[in-house]
Specification:
Elements lengths: L2 H20 L4 H34 L8 H12 L12 E5 L3 E6 L5 E10 L5 E6 L3 E9 L2 E4 L6 E2 L5 E3 L13 H6 L4 E11 L2 E10 L4 E9 L1 H5 L5 E11 L9 H4 L1 E6 L4 E3 L6 E5 L3 E7 L3 E11 L2 E7 L6 E12 L6 E11 L2 H5 L14 H21 L3 H15 L1 H26 L6 H15 L7 H17 L22 E9 L3 E5 H21 L1 H4 L2 H17 L4 H24 L2 H13 L6 H20 L1
Parallel strand pairs: 1-8
Antiparallel strand pairs: 1-2, 2-3, 3-4, 5-6, 5-12, 7-9, 9-10, 10-11, 11-20, 12-19, 13-14, 13-16, 15-18, 16-17, 17-20, 18-19, 21-22
Helix pairs in contact: 2-3, 8-9, 8-12, 9-16, 10-12, 10-17, 13-15, 13-16
């Protein structure tokens, strides 16, 4: 092959590549095509219903002309081509069940019709169904012989005759439910059910569902054969559409299920991202996608590819005012076809709770669906709060007691910081009379000089006026971490304590006949207790430190913060308000103990002794003074 031939081939390749790129449909074009296909499919579906309805009526009602079955079949063939043979049938169900979940399969579409989590209930006590029936669209979409084929319209043939397939259960210890490491050491039974759509001539589509004992995972293998024969030689992929109208599992709350339900997705070998949980949204994912999850507050339905989907289109439609449904969630995923039109595309479904340790065990990033907080806050939850909470939960069943012990645990972790903060405040309190004497020496128009004199006095006494703030700042990540932890802790769901019937939601002791802006239409007693205790703590702290006398403008702000928290936390999880209330109570106890143990006279004596000692300059300060001196000498020489 000479150089000219090679150059020509390269130019041809470049031209073809440029042509295909320039003629690539835009996202808007793809969306229009999807809408067009959906409209065609709906029209065809309505036409099939009308044809079959007339055929049925003609056989049972006199006076209606009998429709030739061959004409019906011809109509269906015109609509569906080789798949027309599967367009008619009777819907039947097969239930695949283990100790944790109940998966109902329908031969219509060969799809997962509904999923029930057996260990959980909805807020009203009814069985917890993740999705059910016609509210669930599920299947492959492609063109065959210029006809739009959506497999959820056809009747598949199940591989079993029985209507119930049960995975033999083995006894699972408490806390090991759904744990894959336990299952690996104690392999149990598994059962499979396949649904096949046969078009003849070795052309078929088959879904194989496999469920193991003690697992929230359902293996989902998509097998196709000969699709190139009917879809066309240029067909390189098919689309898998999964759309569910998510039933409401929790009672309505602006900070609960409505605010935490959305679609999460993970790019292949890349980051986890999500659609906005606050609004309806649609997004095109143009690169490979590892998994897509339909997430609610405490439960998720996740489709995981063993390899990856080529790309995806995901969307949510929020239904905030709907008492029955939270949102409609849709994922349109692209699956590649090989050259022969045959494909075995292995995948899995996860149908289960949003529990950190369960999601984390798969090493797929699914635990990132839990909002544990940004960076440091997330680390505090992952490595301090969650391990302690799980340990207590392993041995204690009362969650009010667990929160109490968790509060004590956190207080012990921060004891050193709290003590240092108290000592710093004690020093400021002791020096307060002397500070006031210094300030009296300066008139009102000499505030800067007064401040400099006060700072010089602090320095000579060896007291840092900000010493009480730093320990408090170091405790802030834990306080913020608890704010994230409690609302997403499924362990608290439907767990009662005292008057609260559900620690994962607000505790209402009274429903108001009206709605107060930013507050709501109910009264949360734990939130009230937290607010009152917080106000008392602010009052006590101000009296101890006298801070508001030095900065009177801060007094209003200090008392305003607890009132703001009253409005913020009234609709938050009762467990969170309970924790903050107990935390404030223990802070009072700590302050009382510190006051008894700390000898303020001894501290005052130490400060006096420090004042008599010469002020030791730091190395930095000495270097700075030396540099200033050298600069002054250099300036003098230049003059």
């Amino acid at each position: 092959m000479d150089r000219n031939t090679i150059t020509g081939l390269i130019l041809i390749f470049v031209i073809l590549f440029a042509f295909s790129y320039l003629n690539k449909p835009s996202e808007k074009d793809l969306e229009v095509l999807r809408l067009k296909n959906d409209s065609i499919a709906l029209a065809e579906k309505a036409k099939v219903k009308e044809i079959t309805k007339q055929a049925e009526l003609s056989t049972i009602q006199p006076g209606i002309s009998k429709i030739d079955s061959s004409n019906v079949q011809n109509e269906l063939t015109n609509l569906y081509g080789v798949f027309a043979v599967a367009a008619k049938g009777e819907e039947k169900f097969v239930t695949l069940e283990n100790n944790l979940i109940k998966v109902v399969l329908s031969n219509k579409g060969g799809k997962i019709y509904s999923v029930e989590l057996k260990d959980y209930k909805r807020f009203n006590g009814k069985p917890l169904i993740l999705f059910d029936g016609e509210e669930n669209r599920f299947g492959l979409n492609f063109f065959s012989q210029n006809k739009s084929i959506q497999t959820d319209q056809f009747f598949f043939q199940p591989s079993v005759k029985e209507s119930l397939v049960t995975v033999n259960e083995t006894k699972v210890p408490k806390g090991k439910e759904g744990r894959e490491n336990y299952n690996n050491d104690n392999p149990g039974d598994s059962k499979s059910v396949s649904m096949r759509l046969d078009a003849g001539n070795n052309v078929f589509i088959e879904y194989v569902y496999t469920l193991k004992n003690n697992s929230y995972l359902v293996d989902f293998d998509i097998k196709t054969s000969g699709l190139k024969k009917v879809a066309g030689a240029n067909s390189e992929f098919v689309n898998f559409l999964w759309s569910i109208n998510m039933p409401r599992q929790e009672k309505m709350s602006k900070f609960g299920e409505n605010n935490q339900s959305t679609i999460f997705y993970k790019f292949d070998k890349d980051v986890v991202d999500k659609l906005s949980p606050a609004k309806s949204e649609s997004k095109s994912l143009s690169t490979k996608v590892k998994w897509v999850g339909f997430k609610q507050q405490f439960f998720s339905s996740v489709l995981i590819a063993d390899q990856a989907f080529q790309n995806a289109q995901v969307s949510t439609k929020k239904r905030e005012l709907d008492s029955s449904y939270v949102a409609e969630m849709t994922a349109d995923l692209t699956i590649p076809l090989d050259a022969g039109g045959s494909e075995n595309f292995p995948a899995k479904f996860y149908f289960g709770p949003n529990q950190y340790n369960i999601l984390n065990q798969f090493d797929l990033g699914m635990e990132e669906q839990l909002s544990l907080g940004w960076t440091v806050i997330g680390w505090v939850n992952k490595y301090i709060v969650i391990p302690a909470f799980d340990f207590l939960h392993r041995y204690i069943g009362n969650f009010g007691l667990i929160i109490l012990l968790l509060t004590i645990y956190i207080k012990l972790l921060t004891l050193v910081f709290t003590y240092k903060s108290y000592i710093s405040q004690a020093k400021m309190r002791i020096l307060k009379p002397e500070i006031e004497e210094i300030q009296k020496k300066f008139p009102e128009d000499k505030k800067l000089e007064s401040q400099q004199a006060v700072m010089a006095f602090y320095k000579k006494a060896g007291v840092n006026p900000m010493g009480g703030c730093l320990p408090m700042v170091l405790q802030m990540p834990i306080l913020i971490a608890m704010f994230y932890f409690f609302p997403i802790s499924i362990e608290l769901r439907q767990q009662s304590f005292l008057w609260a019937t559900d620690l994962s939601s607000f505790d209402s002791i009274a429903n108001l006949p009206f709605t107060i802006p930013f507050y709501g239409n109910h009264v949360s007693l734990f939130c009230l207790l937290m607010t009152v205790t917080n106000i008392l703590y602010v009052k006590y702290n101000n009296e101890m430190t006298g801070a508001t006398q030095q900065m009177p403008g801060m007094k209003t702000m200090m008392y305003l913060m607890p009132v703001m928290f009253l409005f913020i936390f009234n609709s938050y999880a009762a467990g969170l308000s309970l924790y903050y209330f107990l935390s404030l109570v223990f802070t009072f106890v700590q302050m009382f103990i510190f006051k008894k143990l700390v000898n303020e006279d001894a501290i005052h004596a130490q400060i006096k002794a420090k004042q008599k000692m010469p002020v030791t300059k730091s190395k930095f300060q000495a270097r700075l003074e030396e540099m200033t001196k050298q600069k002054a000498l250099a300036d003098k020489k230049r003059r």
